[in-house]
């Protein structure tokens, strides 16, 4: 038994190294591939020794886009894994806590009030996403001494999301100029974001990931049920509060930065769980590595298939992630 556990740990550790290699490859392709492809050797040279050349300008712009993909991909995948663990819901993703709806409603309200502005969407989306998630958690708790059970969290999230979606539709239909701005943001894209987007959302992602590092033992215990978790000495309420804070910060930052990109937070944890099992000590690190692989890989594919234009990454992630999710489900081990 001990030898088998050690062998499994070695295999999963080796898998983390392979995942890290895939991440490096995806990042390299993200910088090298586009309407004008740049050889990897020139990418390396332009990164180490930037100048005023056209190639250097291309590499610099793609580096910022790649950094954004790394950050948003890791945030979405880890947030999805945490939410699935908290709610014990295999369909859990950042949208289940109202994060996507809150960010969308906030962006629409700010656009309708102050006008469209690419640099404004980040600061508009973050507070809306945080507000929606807090509202869901408060409603699910049912009061200061209540307990936010998985079922209550899901129901509260659905209710808040529906109400905010109605608000978005009402404003967008009443003001066509708001809809024109909103429809590009809501699809999700790594392109066209302000240069300082990474700096703006990085603190939220860092805090969210640090909180996620505290969760593996608690999430593993919650998977056994609240009564069993309590018998093991776990404070389920505290674990859910920390988990909700982590998932909210991660999802809010990612949605604010790239828009409500779907499928990353849903598919990646399922695919990872198909070979790691439900142990969050392995699940969360794998999600942090493979989430950016899916997002950057989808972004590269969107540039290649529609060259010289490109497909928005929010459209491509579903097409790329769906086969992997279906394969994981068919194995019968992806569910919680």
From TrEMBL:
Q: Which residues cross the membrane?
A: 68-87, 94-116, 122-141, 153-174, 201-220, 241-263, 283-304, 311-329
One GO cellular component assignment for this chain's record is: plasma membrane
A single Pfam family, by name?
FecCD
Note the topology in the membrane: Multi-pass membrane protein
Which terms does the UniProt entry file under GO BP?
siderophore-iron import into cell
Localization terms from the record: Cell membrane
Q: What name does the UniProt record give this protein?
A: Iron ABC transporter permease
Family, similarity comment: Belongs to the binding-protein-dependent transport system permease family. FecCD subfamily.
Q: Which keywords label this protein?
A: Cell membrane, Membrane, Transmembrane, Transmembrane helix, Transport
The molecular function terms of the Gene Ontology recorded here are:
transmembrane transporter activity
Query: Where is this chain primarily localised?
Result: membrane
Q: Which Gene3D superfamilies match?
A: ABC transporter involved in vitamin B12 uptake, BtuC
UniProt KW Cell membrane keyword: yes
């Amino acid at each position: 038994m001990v030898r088998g556990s050690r062998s499994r740990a070695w295999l999963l550790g080796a898998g983390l190294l392979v995942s890290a290699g895939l991440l490096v490859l995806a990042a390299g392709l993200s910088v090298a591939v586009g309407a004008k492809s740049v050889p990897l050797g020139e990418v390396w040279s332009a990164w180490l020794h930037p100048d005023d050349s056209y190639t250097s300008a291309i590499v610099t712009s793609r580096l910022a886009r790649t950094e954004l993909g790394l950050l948003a991909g890791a945030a979405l995948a880890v947030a999805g894994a945490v939410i699935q663990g908290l709610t014990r819901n295999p369909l859990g993703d950042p949208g289940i806590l109202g994060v996507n709806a809150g960010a969308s409603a906030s962006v629409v309200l700010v656009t309708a009030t102050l006008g469209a502005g690419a640099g404004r969407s980040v600061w508009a989306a973050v507070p809306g996403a945080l507000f929606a998630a807090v509202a869901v958690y408060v409603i699910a708790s049912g009061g200061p001494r209540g307990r936010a059970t998985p079922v209550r969290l899901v129901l509260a999230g659905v209710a808040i999301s529906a109400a905010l979606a109605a608000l978005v539709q009402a404003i967008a239909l009443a003001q066509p100029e708001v809809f024109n701005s909103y429809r590009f943001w809501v699809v999700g894209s790594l392109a066209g974001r302000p240069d300082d987007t990474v700096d703006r959302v990085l603190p939220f992602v860092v805090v969210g990931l640090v909180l996620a590092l505290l969760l593996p033992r608690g999430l593993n215990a919650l998977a056994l049920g609240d009564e069993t978790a309590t018998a093991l000495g776990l404070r389920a309420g505290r674990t859910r509060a920390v988990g909700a804070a982590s998932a909210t910060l991660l999802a809010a930052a990612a949605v604010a930065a790239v828009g409500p990109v779907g499928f990353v937070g849903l598919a990646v944890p399922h695919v990872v769980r198909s070979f790691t099992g439900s142990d969050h000590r392995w699940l969360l690190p794998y999600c942090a590595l493979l989430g950016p692989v899916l997002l950057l890989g989808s972004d590269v594919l969107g540039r290649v298939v529609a060259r010289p234009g490109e497909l928005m990454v929010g459209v491509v992630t579903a097409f790329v992630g769906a086969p992997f999710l279906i394969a994981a489900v068919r194995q019968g081990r992806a569910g919680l």
